[in-house]
Amino acid sequence: MKLIRFAALYLLAALVAVFFADGFRTSAAPPSSNFVLVAHCGAGDYSKAPAAYIEQRRDAMVVAIKQGYKILAAAGTSLDAVETTIRTMEDSGLFDAGRGAYYTRAGVPEMDAAIMDGRTLAAGSVASLQHIANPIHLARLVMEKTPHVMLVGLGAEEFAKSQGIELVSPFYFYNEQLWMRYKMAKATE
Q1: 107 and 91 in one domain?
Q2: Is pLDDT of 152 > 80?
Q3: Which of 64, 71, 120, 158 is the most buried (most CB within 10 A)?
């Protein structure tokens, strides 16, 4: 229960920081009250994490939310705002997505992503990706360009190529901290 409370407090603190961050408003007018953007930055026990690491994640979360908020404030679609927010998180390497993906037992980062349009209930998802820099974008393409809800592994990556998405080397996702975590886990097997 303590871990859940700590994770919830951390998330609440991150969201409060986002909404009250200096310069967050995009104009002198008060923010629109007809939308809210909330993003989850992961759960876990951060009680032993260095303060600098927590601050770095908070700052990255502020950047991600601001990117999505800009789209909504400019009357963009919620799907564009969600995709942009998640892409920003995937690119940061600080969250369990994209460049922050965990290594599989084979020592290769592997990613999943899903997106849904609440208005139409259309959904798209991808799983077991090893060569896609932004899995959330591919999940959206699955939703919008195929009759499927999920594509997996090589089939998903073939679809990505057909949509003009360049595949990246697994080394693109290299993350020193996660690599060390993987090596320690392998050593204790």
Answers
A1: no
A2: yes
A3: 64
Answer whether 73's CB lies under 8 Å from 98's CB.
no
Structural domain harbouring 15: 1-95
Query: How high is the pLDDT of residue 69?
Result: 94
| Same-domain check for residues 90 and 1 | yes
H or E, element range at 178: helix 176-187
pLDDT tens per residue, range 51-79: 998 999 999 999 999 999 999 999 999 99
Shared domain check, 113 and 58: no
Distance CA 175, CA 98 (A): 10
Reading the block at residue 121, the tokens are 């209930």
Rounded alpha-carbon distances, angstroms, from residue 45 to 91, 104, 138, 166, 181: 23, 21, 30, 36, 15
- Mark which of 95, 123, 141 sits at the end of a domain: 95
120 and 175 inside one domain: yes
Mean pLDDT (whole number) for 154-169 = 97
* Side chain identity, residue 178: L
